[in-house]
Amino acid sequence: MRIILFTGKGGVGKSSVAAGTAALAAAAGRRTLVISTDAAHSLADAYQVPAAAVGPDPIEVAPRLHLQQVDAQLRFEQSWAEVQRYLLTVLDAAGMDPVAAEEMTVIPGAEEVLALLEVRLQARSGAWEVIVVDCAPTAETLRLLALPEALGWYLERLLPIQRGLVKALRPVLTRAAGVPMPHDSVFDAITRLHDELDEVHALLSGPTATVRLVLTPEQVVLAEARRAFTSLSLFGYRVDGVVANRVFPADDADPWRAGWVAAQAAVLDRVQQSFAGIALWHSEYQPGEPVGVEGLRAFAAALYGTDDPLRLPSGDGPFRISRTDRGDAVVHLALPFVSRADVDLARNGDELVVTVGSARRLLTLPAGLSRMSVAAARVLDGELQVRFTPADHDFTPADHDQATSRGAR
Question: Which residues is 351 bridged to in the sheet?
């Protein structure tokens, strides 16, 4: 099964590109689902399907093409209800107004996060050969895709401790605090949510899933796309292509448009340099907005040309481990557009903590590496390389200085 996620800065046309790609896949005979995790759903409008006809379950809008706009509120209630009920009892015992308590127990952004669980369910159903995901704009998407791993780190360490303490001290704490302590069902609900989000991360960073960045030829949009590429790579998601949308066709007869063509050409040169090694597709500015299944299919067909829009990229993903002749192990993590001064690296037990700007990833090391020592680290050609050596291996003072300095070298 092939999974393609589309994201980009708001207003660049990512929904049209996602919808067109799905229509093209269905026309090629693949059972295709296009699903939106964006709170501002626009896929129904793109396909010209009445909004009332689109619900939480997939509907067929063309042969082999199905559309789903996730009911994030319903998914929230299904996944968070047990925890929310407990929190409401606590706030009620504290005397909080019920309406305010209801608002307090809804985590900002949680609905969009839980919408990703629908992608997991559909992938597990076996009903689809292709799933196209129209994601929220870039910043929201990056937060969503980083959450499963971050949440997992906290739950794996804190949940067993908290569950044990509460179970042992529940009678005392309930009397002392005057509020009910959580039962195992609450911990079970949180654990279940963690496991589901962990599956989402494994699915979307797996070998059959990729992300495509959609941009318009503008400096600000390109800068955001470059940052997104770095962050997606940091968290293990493979970017397989970039779509440059709304490119003005050449027209020397119109000086105003010729100026736009020249300005866009300069940005497109930077796009080519920035994303060398991955597919780059161009879509000219359309005389009219592509809408409807056939209109979007034709739009995507012109975009991809003779390329297969469903092809998987060759080569390694953003994370891999290699071995040296002397028995050392080297962790490779793709970090495009990053220099050594941008990276902070730390070792914490069996974890490697990688920080790039405001983004931080905690990489849990395989058992074989957790017993080894960090000997050196560097950033080379957009890739972080961390060398591990057996604990009993002597390495030079220079290696030690390099491994323990604040910035990765």
Answer: 348, 364
